[in-house]
Amino acid sequence: MPENSKYKNKKPIYILGIESSCDDTAAAVLKDGKIISNKVANQVIHEQYGGVVPELASRAHQQNIVPVVDLALREAGIKPKDLSAIAFTEGPGLLGSLLVGVSFAKSLSLALDIPMIGVHHMKAHVLAHFIEDNEMKLPEFPFLALTISGGHTQIVQVNNYFDFKILGETRDDAVGEAFDKSAKIMGLPYPGGPLIDKYAREGNPKAYKFPKPKVPGMDFSFSGLKTSILYFLQKQTKENPDFINENLADLSASIQYTIVNILMDKLKLAVETTGINRIAIAGGVSANSGIRKALIEAEKNKNWKVYIPKFEYTTDNAAMIAIVGYLKYREKMFSDLNLVPKARMSLT
C-alpha cells in the first residue's frame, strides 16, 4: 500500500477487527496496515447437524468474543487504551451472530471513547489483498474480483477501495453451497467442500461428465449441476450400492473440475468484456486447490495478473475486517451508535 506522507511521524494506528458473521468468532489487531495478531475461535458443534445452526452460533459467539479479543490484544502486546478504532462486521451474515459482534464493538467504543467502523463482510474478503504481507502481491486498480464463498458467488469490478461494481452473480446456489451439497449427496460430513478438494487430488477430473448451466452474461447458476449430480448418483447406486465409495476420488475430481470450469468461463468473459486482466480471488472457497491451479495456469497462458490470498485470509477472519477499518479510518469514514447489523447488504 503506498505510504502517505501525511501519516508519517504520527503515533501508530491500531485497529481492532472483529468478525462474527457466521460461526467463527475472530479478532485481529492491525498496526499501520500490518496484522500483528489474528485469532479465530471455531465452533465445532455444528458438524453434528450438517450445517450452521444460527441460534447455537450466536450463543457460542457470546461465550467466545471476550476471550478471543483478549487473546488478540495480548498477542499484539497492546492494551485496549492503545486502540485507535474498532472495526467490525456489519453484515451480511446471520443476524444473531452479527448482533453479538456489533453490540460488543459499540460497548467497547463507548468505553474507550474511540471511533467504531462498520465493515461489509464480502468487501473485506476482497480488500484482504491489501494487508501488508511479504507473501502477497498488492492488486493494481482497477481489477476483477471473483468472490466465492458458502453464501456468495460474484464477479466484481473493483475501481478503488470503496468503488465496487457487480458484473455477475449467482442466480441460485453459491459455489460453496454447490460443493457442500454435492458432498452431502455423496455422504460426506459437513463441511464437505474441503473434503471434495482433498479427494479430488487423487482422482481423474474427466472420469465423469456433468453438464454446465447455460446462463447468459456473467451470472452463475449451480442448482442444476447439483440436481444432475443427485440423479446420476441415484442411478449408479441403484445398480451398485458401493458406487460412491469405490469411485469417491474420481467423483470428487469430476465435480470440482466442472465447478472450476464454470467459474473460469465466466472470468474469461469478464476479462474480454472489461479489458481488465488483473484477477483477484476472495472468500472461503478461494482456498480450493483446483481454483488456485486454474488461475495460476491462466496467468501463464492468458497473460493474466492473478492475486491469490494467503490461506489464513480466505476463510472468515478478523484481519480482513481490520484492514478495511484501517482504510476507512484514514478517510474518517466512521459509524455511529444507530448502526444495526444487516443480514443482507448490497455490495454496491
Care to describe what's here?
With 348 residues, this protein is an alpha/beta fold. It folds into two domains: 5-129 and 314-330, ATPase, nucleotide binding domain (Nucleotidyltransferase, domain 5); 140-308, Nucleotidyltransferase, domain 5 (2-Layer Sandwich). It is 40% helix and 18% strand. The protein is built from ten helices and ten strands. It has helices at residues 54-76, 95-112, 121-127, 175-185, 193-200, 223-239, 243-246, 248-274, 289-301, 319-330; strands at 14-19, 25-31, 34-41, 85-91, 116-120, 143-148, 153-160, 163-169, 278-282, 305-307. The strands form two sheets. The chain has a five-stranded mixed sheet, with helices on both faces. A hairpin with a 4-residue loop joins strand 6 (143-148) and strand 7. Mean pLDDT is 92; it is low at 1-7.
Brief write-up:
This protein is α/β, with parallel strands linked by helices and 348 residues long. The protein contains ten helices and ten strands.
